[in-house]
């Protein structure tokens, strides 16, 4: 099977889940619709009945005809005068998969970025799906990936824990450099969705191991272990994260603002007490670490019956502030990794959340209903020392 076909199979599977679900996400308004459009636009061998079933109003992007009936050059839509002349503080590299500017692969542009520069390197990436495994090494700081929208620009690969020396190396994109920024682009892992009990099928979309990283308007698509928020201070705003088990995990110190966290765990029968997913698995291992995940003004929805977090390490720290939760959250809310010795050291808190999943009456005893003072630690960018670096990096 070609990677394109694999990719498509994956999208079809996700759609099947979405359509079969009681908690229906309208496929026509899901970001996945647009990614499927994108995928189909580059795939010729898809049965048309599947296309029409999934996307009634699908319009192929690359078959656009000119008004006078001739088929134009694929580069006709490419923005004129791009890239612009380098301003003082940034320098541009341009990626277009159809070859309309310097680079056709994102990795080639990363390789071309200078190791040491007073300027930020903006890698401008045109619409399209880039099938690449990408590494940003430690010695390439100050890189920005600028996409054209997380529904229309995506990087995808399909490694799993088995195919890549373990989960930590399965990321389609791996960021080891500091000061990385991504805007309006999606990161995907399109490996087969694990069946319950599968071993070695975890598949990370992105690993973020550099300090002071920011993601604005980005998408993260995978199933188990989608977003490896590994280490460093990270900021996420207006992002869309999809997964099933532990789909945001790692030992980062991170603020997620105004993000959608969408579970794609299998729908469970009404009344079932099984839990088949977890939004987070934070890896704080010592009381001396100041790491943690803070979610502010977010939305949790999708399918399955999931925990807000599992205590991957004994000092796991996660809070949800002002977040709307659909009725996919198990009433106990959280899990101590089935290790009661962790109950004394984990920090799982909720503050002013709403929605059917946010009812705290049946929460596990170790869960904290935060007061104003406690919540204020997590509520804004000071949690990640954002005042020092955030504006500077994202401007
Ligand atoms: C990734 O896709 C390629 C091409 O379809 C396939 O050969 C390979 O086995 C896939 N890898 C995994 C881990 O599924
Ligand atoms: C069709 O229009 C394009 C510009 O939109 C022009 O370059 C081309 O020559 C036209 N072809 C014919 C046959 O008129
Ligand atoms: C940018 O460079 C130009 C010419 O080198 C200089 O005149 C201008 O003051 C610089 N602008 C900034 C903001 O540094
Ligand atoms: C990109 O292409 C332009 C010409 O279109 C060229 O002047 C420039 O040097 C190229 N940049 C790189 C980094 O290859
Ligand atoms: C990264 O950019 C900042 C300014 O934006 C600069 O001070 C720093 O030296 C750069 N780092 C490297 C290694 O080039
Ligand atoms: C992302 O794209 C939207 C819509 O095209 C645009 O309004 C917004 O400014 C972009 N944001 C970033 C950070 O690039
Ligand atoms: C991963 O590898 C193990 C051991 O070789 C094997 O038992 C398992 O089926 C593999 N998992 C997947 C998803 O391929
Ligand atoms: C966590 O704390 C240990 C010491 O207890 C320290 O060595 C390590 O660097 C810290 N890790 C992070 C990510 O802060
Ligand atoms: C919660 O959300 C409301 C409106 O959506 C906003 O006014 C309020 O400031 C938010 N609270 C926090 C702590 O962010
Ligand atoms: C609590 O959340 C509601 C929305 O559900 C919001 O209107 C209100 O401002 C929030 N309160 C605080 C203190 O953030
Ligand atoms: C919260 O859950 C409890 C126990 O299931 C129930 O009695 C109560 O009515 C719920 N509260 C709301 C506001 O739904
Ligand atoms: C908030 O909770 C903390 C920890 O339980 C407590 O020490 C503090 O006094 C509380 N603050 C307020 C204003 O209730």
Automatic annotation (TrEMBL):
<comment type="pathway">
    <text>Glycan metabolism; pectin degradation; 2-dehydro-3-deoxy-D-gluconate from pectin: step 1/5.</text>
</comment>
<dbReference type="InterPro" id="IPR012334">
    <property type="entry name" value="Pectin_lyas_fold"/>
</dbReference>
<keyword id="KW-0325">Glycoprotein</keyword>
<dbReference type="InterPro" id="IPR000070">
    <property type="entry name" value="Pectinesterase_cat"/>
</dbReference>
<keyword id="KW-0063">Aspartyl esterase</keyword>
<dbReference type="GO" id="GO:0042545">
    <property type="term" value="P:cell wall modification"/>
</dbReference>
<comment type="function">
    <text>Acts in the modification of cell walls via demethylesterification of cell wall pectin.</text>
</comment>
<keyword id="KW-0378">Hydrolase</keyword>
<dbReference type="InterPro" id="IPR011050">
    <property type="entry name" value="Pectin_lyase_fold/virulence"/>
</dbReference>
<protein>
    <recommendedName>
        <fullName>Pectinesterase</fullName>
        <ecNumber>3.1.1.11</ecNumber>
    </recommendedName>
</protein>
<feature type="active site">
    <location>
        <position position="246"/>
    </location>
</feature>
<keyword id="KW-0964">Secreted</keyword>
<dbReference type="GO" id="GO:0030599">
    <property type="term" value="F:pectinesterase activity"/>
</dbReference>
<comment type="similarity">
    <text>Belongs to the pectinesterase family.</text>
</comment>
<dbReference type="GO" id="GO:0045490">
    <property type="term" value="P:pectin catabolic process"/>
</dbReference>
<feature type="domain" description="Pectinesterase catalytic">
    <location>
        <begin position="95"/>
        <end position="386"/>
    </location>
</feature>
<dbReference type="Pfam" id="PF01095">
    <property type="entry name" value="Pectinesterase"/>
</dbReference>
<keyword id="KW-0732">Signal</keyword>
<feature type="signal peptide">
    <location>
        <begin position="1"/>
        <end position="20"/>
    </location>
</feature>
<keyword id="KW-0961">Cell wall biogenesis/degradation</keyword>
<dbReference type="InterPro" id="IPR033131">
    <property type="entry name" value="Pectinesterase_Asp_AS"/>
</dbReference>
<keyword id="KW-0134">Cell wall</keyword>
């Amino acid at each position: 099977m070609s990677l394109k076909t694999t990719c498509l199979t994956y999208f079809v599977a996700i759609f099947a889940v979405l359509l079969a679900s009681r908690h229906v996400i309208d496929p026509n308004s899901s970001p996945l619709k647009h990614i499927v459009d994108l995928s189909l636009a580059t795939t010729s061998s898809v049965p048309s009945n599947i296309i029409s079933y999934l996307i009634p109003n699908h319009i192929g992007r690359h078959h656009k005809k000119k008004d006078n009936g001739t088929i134009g050059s694929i580069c006709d839509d490419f923005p004129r005068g791009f890239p612009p002349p380098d301003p003082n503080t940034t320098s541009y590299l341009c990626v277009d998969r159809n070859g309309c500017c310097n680079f056709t692969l994102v990795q080639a542009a990363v390789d071309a970025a200078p190791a040491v520069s007073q300027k930020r390197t903006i890698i401008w990436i045109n619409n399209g799906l880039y099938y690449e495994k990408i590494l940003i090494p430690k010695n390439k700081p100050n890189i920005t990936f600028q996409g054209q929208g997380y529904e229309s620009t995506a990087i995808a690969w399909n490694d799993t824990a088995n195919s890549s020396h373990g989960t930590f190396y399965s990321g389609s994109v791996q960021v080891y450099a500091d000061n990385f920024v991504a805007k309006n682009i999606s990161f995907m892992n399109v490996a087969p969705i694990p069946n319950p009990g599968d071993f070695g099928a975890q598949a990370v979309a992105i690993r973020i191991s550099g300090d002071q990283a920011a993601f604005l308007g980005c998408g993260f698509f995978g199933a188990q272990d989608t977003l490896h928020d590994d280490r460093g201070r990270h900021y996420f705003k207006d992002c869309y994260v999809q997964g099933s088990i532990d789909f945001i995990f790692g030992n980062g110190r991170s603020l997620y603002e105004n993000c959608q966290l969408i579970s794609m765990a299998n729908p469970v029968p009404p009344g079932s007490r099984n839990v088949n997913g977890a939004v987070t698995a934070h890896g704080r291992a010592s009381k001396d670490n100041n790491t943690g995940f803070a979610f502010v003004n977010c939305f949790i929805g999708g399918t399955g019956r999931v925990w807000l977090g599992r205590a991957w390490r004994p000092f796991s720290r996660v809070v949800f502030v002002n977040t709307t939760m659909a009725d996919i959250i198990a009433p106990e809310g959280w899990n101590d990794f089935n290790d009661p010795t962790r109950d004394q050291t984990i920090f799982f808190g909720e503050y002013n959340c709403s929605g059917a999943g946010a009812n705290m009456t049946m929460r596990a005893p170790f869960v904290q209903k935060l007061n104003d003072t406690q919540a204020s630690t997590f509520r804004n960018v000071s949690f990640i020392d954002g005042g020092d670096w955030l504006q500077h990096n994202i401007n």
